[in-house]
Structure formats: C-alpha cells, structure tokens
Amino acid sequence: MRLLAIDPSLRCTGFAVLERLEARKVRALEYGTIPNPPKIPASSCLVAIHDRISGLITQYQPECAAVEAVIFVQSHRTAITLGAARGSAILALAQRGVPIFEYSPKDAKQAVVGRGGADKAQVAFMVRAMLGLTETPSPDAADALAIGLTHLQSYDSAQLGVKVLKRI
After folding, report:
1. What's the predicted TM-score (pTM) here?
2. Which residues are bridge partners to 32 per DSSP?
3. Which of 28, 81, 113, 160 is 20 to 30 A from 74 (CA-CA)?
C-alpha cells in the first residue's frame, strides 16, 4: 500500500509518501514541506499547495491519503485559513479520485508516541525511529509522517474487524 499523508497549513504544509512493504514494514519514499513565504498572498499559497499535492499524486500514485483533521483553534481567522489550506489539499486528492481519511493530531500523537498530549519534538523523534530515518524531520513533515503511520495502524485494525477508519 502506498499513501500520501498531509499536515495542512497555509505557510508550511507537511507531506509524506509512505509505502507498506512485506511484514508490515513501512518506508518513507519522500517527505517534506510546501513552504509559502509570508509575502505572497493566501490565494497563491492555496495554488502552490494544490499544485504540489497534485504533483505528488502524479509521481507516486497513492492508493489513499491521510489528512490531519481540523483542530480547535482560538481564532476564527486561523480556523478559516487552516480550513482553506486543508481544502486545497483535499481538492487535489478528490480530483484524482484518491480515497481520503482523516485523523486528529491527538490520534496521531497517540499512535506514534503513545500519548495524545506529546509535543512536536517527541513526535519527530518517534517517526524517525519508527521509519529508520537518518535525520529528524521538520515538525510539519514529522506531523505528516505521524498522520500516515496512524492511517496504516488504523488500516491494520480495520483488517482485523475493528472499525477505526475515518473516511471523508
């Protein structure tokens, strides 16, 4: 199974392409961020996110995608901006018929660290260890990797008859 995982953000969207191999071994084919400088307008950021996700889909042909769910934020403006970035990524996936699943940040932290309140450094450390990476990924890339690992764990549970997949 090959999947594309996304941690959406207007200025620094994290992404990861993961592949499940035999014996439940997982490898990261590519991971990183889609950086958008503060000086460019939000609309240009949304186009950049859509275009990069579209390019990753074309390049890797994922069977499904895992996206971080909307989180509670104090500011309505932040929520709208985050929702727009998330929508841009989801649109790219939906246009190509990629099944999309969502997971909360708490679910991802629980899956990779064992504690839903883990900090970003702990998440980055654990995804590095779990995937045998040679470098610690940036926080946004690490979050995307964690979302992808969460989906693979949920997929395994679903194969055992436990309904845990959250498709959107």
Report:
1. 0.93
2. 15
3. 113
**Given pLDDT bands bounded at 50, 70 and 90, which one contains residue 78?**
confident
Provide the CATH number for the domain around residue 10. 3.30.420.10
- In single-letter form, the type of residue at position 92 comes to A
Instruction: Kindly give the pairing relationship between strand 26-35 and strand 64-68.
Output: unpaired
From the candidates 102, 107, 140, 143, which is the catalytic residue?
A: 140
CB 56 within 8 A of CB 15: yes
68 is catalytic: yes
User: Domain for residue 38, yes or no?
Assistant: yes
Q: Is 140 a catalytic residue?
A: yes
Model confidence over 99-123: pLDDT tens digits? Answer: 999 999 999 999 999 988 899 999 9
Catalytic site residue from 68, 102, 107, 143: 68
The residue from 7, 102, 107, 143 that is catalytic is: 7
CA nearest to 8, candidates 63, 70, 59, 60 = 70
Residue 164 lies in a domain: no
Which domain range does residue 108 map to?
A: 2-159
Q: Is 88 exposed, middle or buried (0-12, 13-18, 19+ CB in 10 A)?
A: buried
